[in-house]
Write a structure and sequence with these properties.
The protein is an alpha/beta fold and 287 residues long. The protein is 32% helix and 25% strand. The protein binds ribose-5-phosphate.
């Protein structure tokens, strides 16, 4: 079953797994409330519910309504396929009184589904999904797919992670692309205010810089890294993102700063160049 906006990804997944897609009707009433109808017969079905959570606040209620309807109509098991899983970054009370939304969102999803599969959730202070999810939450990794794309499209690359958190996937991408890697240092002062410092990059000066990040939201992290790389004498970087959120003007600004800007289809976006349905299909087929 595909929630609105996820039909193409669900169709690719269904094709690979030779499954049917359960028809879901959904619309908004004039007052903004959601109408949801599951037209097919789901009694006894083990359902994969595809909903990437790039816009979680309006998406969540509709997703919960669809899951509860499926359950009431007799679905035997509901697995959420959320290529992008939202609310992973507020993983601590940074200031007194703040909501720790990573935990609350995990609790809400855990009530509606029996299991969850996602790709590269932003695990930082939470070391595993089991710390916050009460249901089995399986994590897939896009690094091999990113490495393949880089290997096929970028000559003589050096893989660059913009901050310490990126070290985990940058090393894997670099190994897969048979390239060296470097991790920069980042300090964040606000949603759109980051400062990055470059180490000595002289040994890699003749290579094509490839900036790899899990999430691009405001784009400020990659923009600042790209600016510093140009200042250090590199060509405009290739930018590769797992989750292309691209808030506001981020896509336009980054397109101007990068020689190429690509992403996975964890979130549908014109920059998508790396398909993840085979990764999900492979993992689900092995279950
Ligand atoms: C956080 O540390 C992540 O890995 C990304 O670097 C971050 O979410 C990017 O955010 P923005 O595009 O807003 O700089």
């Amino acid at each position: 079953m595909a929630l609105p906006g996820n039909e193409a990804f669900a169709a690719r997944l269904a094709r690979s797994l030779e499954l049917e897609v359960a028809p879901l009707e959904s619309r908004r009433f004039p007052d903004g409330e959601s109408y949801v109808r599951l037209a097919g017969d789901v009694a006894g079905a083990e359902m994969l519910v595809v909903c990437t959570l790039a816009d979680p606040d309006p998406q969540f209620l509709r997703l919960a309504y669809a899951a509860r309807t499926a359950r009431e109509l007799g679905a035997a098991r509901l697995t959420l396929i959320a290529p992008y899983l939202a609310y992973m970054r507020q993983d601590k009370r940074f200031h007194p009184g703040e909501a720790v939304t990573s935990r609350y969102f995990a609790d809400l999803l855990s009530r509606e589904f029996d299991a969850l599969v996602t790709v590269d959730p932003h695990l930082h202070r939470h070391k595993s999904m089991a710390e916050i999810y009460a249901i089995p939450a399986r994590v897939l990794h896009a690094a091999p797919a990113l490495a393949r794309w880089i290997g096929q499209h970028v000559p003589h690359p050096v893989i660059i992670g913009p901050d310490a958190e990126s070290e985990q996937w940058v090393a894997e991408v670099a190994a897969g692309a048979n390239a060296p890697s470097v991790v920069l240092r980042k300090e964040r002062f606000g949603d759109r205010d980051v400062r990055i410092s470059l180490p000595d990059l002289t040994p890699w000066r003749d290579r094509t810089p490839v900036l790899v990040d899990d999430i691009v939201s405001s784009g400020r992290t990659l923009l600042e890294a790209a600016r510093l790389l140009r200042g250090a004498g590199f060509a405009a970087p290739v930018c590769v993102a797992v989750h292309p959120l691209f808030a506001d003007d981020a896509f336009a600004l980054l397109q101007a700063a990068a020689q190429r800007l690509v992403s996975t289809d964890a979130i549908a976006h014109p920059s998508n160049a790396i398909g993840l349905a085979p990764l999900f299909a492979h993992a689900l087929a092995a279950d």
